[in-house]
Structure formats: C-alpha cells, structure tokens
Amino acid sequence: MRRDDFPQVKALRTGQVVRHAVFGLPHERTGELRWLRVTAFPDAWEEQGRPRRAYAIFGDVTEQRRAEARLREGNRLLGHLHDANVVGVVVGTEEKVQEANDAFLDIIGYSHEDLESGRITWDVITPAEWAASDADALEQLRMTGVCRPYEKEHLHRDGRRVPVLIGAAVLDRDPLRGVEFVADLTDRQCREQERADLLAREQAARKEADSARERLAFLLQAGDLAGSTASEADLLEQINKLVEVAVTSARIASPPAPTCPTPGRRTRRFVPSTPSLRNASASARPIWFARNRIAAHWKLSCSRPSGCRPSDS
C-alpha cells in the first residue's frame, strides 16, 4: 500500500473521516498476512480549516476474512453440487422448502412450479411418525449449527414412501435457515431385500438337500436289510428299528406337526406301530412309505416258487 493510501494520510489531506478501510500487512515476527480494518478521524483544526493531526482505530479482521473466504468457497462448491444433481440439495426454513434442485424434486415427485408457489412444506412431504426425528435434528441445528446424518422417509406425491438419508447445516440463525442434503436409499433397500430373499432360498434349498440325503440313506439301509433277512418278522423288526432312529432324528431337527389323512380312495398304507412314530413330524412319512414298499416287495417275493428273497424291482 502506498503512503498516500493510508487512512490517516487521507484524513489529513481531505479533512474527512475515512471509515472501514481494510488492508493487509505482514506480521513483523511471523510474516503472516494480517488483515486490519481502520477508521481515521481528522483532529486539531487550523485557522485555515485544515487538520493538524489524525488518529485511527484499528481492528484485526483476519479471522473474519478467512471465514468469508471459506464461505465463498463453500457456496461455490454448494452451487456445483446443486447443479450436478448427484444428491438432493434443499434450502429452507423450519416450515417450508425455499430452494431445491432437480434431484430432490424427483425424490418427492413435485415440480418447480410447486416449489415457486410455496406448496412444498415439511409437513406435506414427511410422514407423521418421523416428526420426533425431525424435531431432534432441528434442535441439533439450533445448538451446534449441524445435525448428525439420519435416515427417514419422504412422502412422494403419488403417496408412496421414499427412504432417504438426511444431513443438514445452518445458513442463518435469525430466522433459522439451513441447507439439507438428501440421498435416495431406495436402491440400497431393494438390494438388501434381494440379498435376504436369496439367503432364504439358499437355506430352504440346503434343508431340502439334507432331507433328500437322509431319505436316500434310509432307503439304501432298508435295501440292505431286505437282502439279508430270512423272514418277514425279522425284516419288519429291523425296519422298525431303522424307522425309530430316523423319526427320532426328524423330531430333534424340527418340532412335531400333526399328520393329516389323505382324502380320496382307501389305499393300503403303513401304520406306525408305536406312539412316537404316530406323532412324528411330516418329514418321516416318506420313510414310513419306503418301509411299506419294502415289506410289500418281501411278501411278493415269498409267494414265488423260488422261495423267500427280496424283490428285484
């Protein structure tokens, strides 16, 4: 700064008060640039009407200048984010939305005409059960100037609910006015539901595969018994033991379920010989059916001239 530009020199030269002149000076020890606001007053007037001296009031406004620079940079970045429409950006008061980008309007299903007419209020686009969460966020804004990000829902114009993630910061305090950032979580929730459905199907498939392996193992053991047993009584006794083990395992794996008779014509079917078999879960019924078939094959084989042996079919 030239000497003639100093506020005191101007006050002496012009005889007028120089108000709020701001200029930067390097700090003598650190070399850091410090910003000063100066007001100079002329004093001690001569007979000709010229001041003989001037005094000045200095104020350090370095932090204020830095804050203003950060605010300008923030506004610039906010403008870029607003125009990019990556997330919803909203500026509003406690009652209504004043400004919003296309991304936010798409989330709630309203138009720029609705925005300009003042029809978009927080009560209209927020379900009643989220009022407590919004009130807590509003209190955080009053106390700290920001609120912790939190999840809620917005009401779309067509009535459906849109899950969103909200974050906000204060722009002005009197009256309270802030900026809000809104991210649509619909895609994330859909992916989570798809993963849950896939896991459920996988668990069901594994349960069915385990059940199929158990039935196959039983049939293989029953076939071995049919080939090594010499009489019908021995065969039924061995099969009863095998069925008892299978049914006990089924009762441990799942809670008992009542059996329901199959409607239709009367057919020959196996009746469990013990109460534990009669009350067993439905998963054991294929095993009882296999026992019935094996016993029937054994009887058919005994009726042949060649003697008692298991049927080949």
Overall description:
The chain folds into 3 domains: 3-60, no CATH class; 67-184, PAS domain (Beta-Lactamase); 211-302, no CATH class. It is of the alpha+beta class and 313 residues long. The protein is 47% helix and 24% strand. The chain has 10 helices and 8 strands. 15% of the residues are buried. A hairpin with a 6-residue loop joins strand 1 and strand 2 (33-45).
CATH level-four homologous superfamily name of the largest domain:
PAS domain
CATH architecture assignment of the largest domain? 2-Layer Sandwich
Cα radius of gyration in angstroms: 44 Å
% residues in beta strands: 15-25%
What's the order of the H and E elements?
A: HEEEHEEHHHHEEEHHHH
Averaged pLDDT: 76
Poorly predicted ranges? 255-284, 300-313
Major sheet: 5 strands, antiparallel
Helix content: 40-55%
User: How many beta-strand segments?
Assistant: 8
Our count of domains comes out at 3
CATH class of the largest domain: Alpha Beta
Structural category:
alpha+beta
In short:
Helices cover 47% and strands 24% of the residues. It has 313 residues and is an alpha+beta fold.
